Amino acid sequence: MKLHIFMGLVTFLVSIPSMANMTDENKQKLDTYLTILDKYNKAMLSVAIYHEDQLTYSHTIGKLDVKKNIPLQADSRFRIGSLTKSFTAVLVMKAVEQGKLSLTQHLADYFPQFPRGKDISLEQLLAHTSGLYNFTDAPEYLSSMTQPTSQDALFAKMASYPLDFEPGTKTRYSNTNYVLLGLILEKAYGVTYGELLARQITKPFGLEHTYVGKKINTEKGEALSFKFNEYWEPSPETDMSIPLGAGAIVSTANDINYFYQQLFKNKIVTKASLKMMKPNNTHIGKGLMSFSFHEKTFLGHNGSIDGFNAIAGYYNEDKMSFVVLSNATNTPFNDILTAVLSAYFNKNFDIPDFTLKPIDLQADQLTAFTGKYQSRMIPRDIQIFVQNDKLYAQPSGRSSFSLQAYPGDEFRFDSAGIIIRFNRISDTQREVKGFTLFEGDGQFDFTRM
């Protein structure tokens, strides 16, 4: 998961002084930012930031249940999706330490009927190098995800797809890997995944609000998820018999922070096991991913399921961890993450103005903005063109995307949090000379070629 999904490498060009804690001014600014998201129905979420074992910042906005008008609290439980994989990987590494599993074992040792199981090691499942097709990408998945599914039926479905590539030759993220690891853990210990999670992690470390989810029960503090269509409406609810070790855990922002703080202190698995979990030549490791904010590299994981989004990260130099759990978003999740990290690391971020309304421009008006633009800050040109009476932008080597017009020569690609603000020569000379591109906390000037 990358915080800058459009420009990528520019995150490494800016230096930010490291600091161990947020300033009061930045806490207040982040409070304001989140309050505005709440006011304009842009998100419902829980944020928590820790420095070592101490809570540095916490804020919740929105509803646990919109219909019943139940607000979210700091201890509200969210489905965390693929963030579950960090827990599953830890359980596997603990099983290796306890002599229950070996990473050199093969899928066929536990499921001999699985096609090519003799060629796929447990280590390859952990590292997403197995070649197994991601069953949640299948076209029919959306029509079946809300229905209870037996393990036999789930197993048969995962086994029915051909390999994406030969095991060990590539890295490609697949939920299939971690569903199978969850099932293997159950075979190795003779207990359910949920029981093993409680025995090995949540009870020893006091994670009282972390467990394998069932049907959402708001009376137990479990949040529903929502999508926005003029108003918040419930999202479909995945039956938790399906994601298992790939995405079935429910937790809180505080519990996940504590989990990561203890993990990186080598309190949950050994130092050697933790080292094996970390990414090497790719950003995908064994239950951990790496992502960057400016020159800082975090280890953690992200997740999404239904209308939930989640991300957790740990920055070793500051012993800092952060967690954002959302049950509804109507604005780019990436923007929220950027604001949270900018507030902690004393980097400026903008408070969005959601009062601006999009406008319609005629094709001849859009033509004034067309052309090829270049920047000294980024080694990538951008072509601006009109197609079907809409303005489009296409960075060199990438796909084009449509832009929505706003007042003041501003255009936006909302799903990626990108704003392009065109610059004219002067008030009297109206020819467009360039634009400034805003993405997250980045700002990049382009001139017309």
TrEMBL record:
It comes from the Bacteria. Residues 43-335 form the Beta-lactamase-related domain. Keywords: Hydrolase, Signal. It holds the Pfam family Beta-lactamase. Gene3D superfamilies: DD-peptidase/beta-lactamase superfamily (3.40.710.10). SUPFAM superfamilies: beta-lactamase/transpeptidase-like. Coiled coil: none annotated. One of its GO terms (molecular function) is hydrolase activity. Residues 1-20 form the signal peptide. InterPro entries: AmpC-like, Beta-lactam-related, Beta-lactam/transpept-like. The keyword Ribosomal protein does not apply. PANTHER family: BETA-LACTAMASE-RELATED DOMAIN-CONTAINING PROTEIN, D-ALANYL-D-ALANINE-CARBOXYPEPTIDASE/ENDOPEPTIDASE AMPH. This is Class A beta-lactamase-related serine hydrolase. It comes from Zooshikella ganghwensis.
